[in-house]
Specification:
alpha+beta; seven-stranded mixed β-sheet; 13 strands
Length: 312
């Protein structure tokens, strides 16, 4: 294992596979677990071999009886599709925007990727085929995560700042929470090999609001364990329990997960239960953008606004 020297002259060693295996077991991951993982690789410090080393460590800890799942979502594009965007056809090899760990899973020789055109999952292990191959364009977007929750799955967040525990969007969609969304989609190949258009048909949410659930998870038994993987603060949650907590809370208070930012368009304006007023939201956003400008840039913005007013 290679050492490097820090600025103060002391030797620093990277985290290798054996150390990560020990960390994961200490955290509470067991052979045979059904595990959904969200990973901030950067938060772990220097991992020798990068994402592939962490992946190999997880696969070893889970063993052949276990199953590792992660999100491997792909982008969508504004509708109607431009000529260039129409040429981007979703398939098993479409790159994900979900980070280096998910990209490493996609490259693994034993991976199975879901058939959904956009909300693709990727899995390795005993239940990979069962979870992924039935997930298609006609399935609910987060169906594999719902099935994992019902089957006693666990969620692993490596870096507690990673947003979400794998079940919140499941709860939103089971409760049929209504949100105005931009028209987005992507072309994909259907079962007959024809190019078809897939349009977004699920709701999302503001990442700033989802951490509001954590005190409820703490209080009601949703958190299984806390510890470290590499340098990263990490947490394991019980997916069935977090889903039950979210369903109960959102059924009583669907606006619970909205963030507290008065300038957040998504939280203040897009949901059926949003109570924001568009003029107020856009004024807040404008004032914030003005505060972030230098005095010279602010003066130019105001001068340009008055110039446009005079010319109309």
């Amino acid at each position: 294992m290679t050492d490097i020297t820090s600025e103060n002259g002391s030797a620093k060693r990277p985290f290798g596979k054996s150390q990560l295996v020990e960390d994961l077991r200490q955290l509470g991951i067991k052979r045979g677990d059904l595990l959904h993982a969200k990973v901030s690789l950067r938060s772990m410090g220097w991992v020798e071999g990068g994402a592939r080393t962490l992946l190999d460590a997880l696969v070893e800890v889970l063993g052949p009886e276990g199953t590792l799942v992660s999100d491997a979502f792909i982008p969508m594009y504004p509708l109607p599709l431009t000529h260039e965007d129409a040429k981007k056809i979703s398939d098993d090899n479409s790159p994900t925007y979900a980070g280096a760990f998910c990209a490493a899973m996609i490259q693994h020789p034993e991976m199975v990727r879901s058939r959904h055109p956009v909300q693709k999952g990727v899995a390795i292990g005993a239940m990979a085929n069962d979870l992924m191959l039935s997930h298609s364009e006609s399935s609910p977007a987060y169906e594999p995560l719902q099935r994992m929750a019902l089957a006693g799955g666990k969620h692993l967040s490596i870096d507690r700042n990673v947003i979400g525990v794998g079940t919140t969007h499941v709860a939103q969609n089971l409760l049929d929470l209504q949100q105005k969304t931009s028209p987005l989609g992507i072309n994909y190949l259907d079962d007959q090999g024809n190019i078809a258009l897939f349009k977004i048909n699920w709701v999302g949410g503001c990442a700033e609001g989802f951490p509001k659930f954590f005190p409820l998870y703490e209080k009601m038994g949703g958190i299984v364990a806390r510890g470290n993987v590499g340098k990263a603060d990490s947490v394991i949650t019980d997916m069935k329990k977090t889903l039950e907590i979210e369903l109960d809370k959102l059924e009583k208070d669907p606006a619970f997960f909205l963030c507290d930012n008065p300038g957040c368009i998504q939280c203040r304006l897009t949901w059926a239960f949003s109570t924001g007023k568009a003029p107020v939201v856009y004024l807040v956003r404008f004032m914030k953008s003005m505060r972030q400008k230098s005095p010279l840039a602010l003066w130019r913005s105001v001068s340009n606004w008055f110039a446009r007013r005079r010319s109309t």
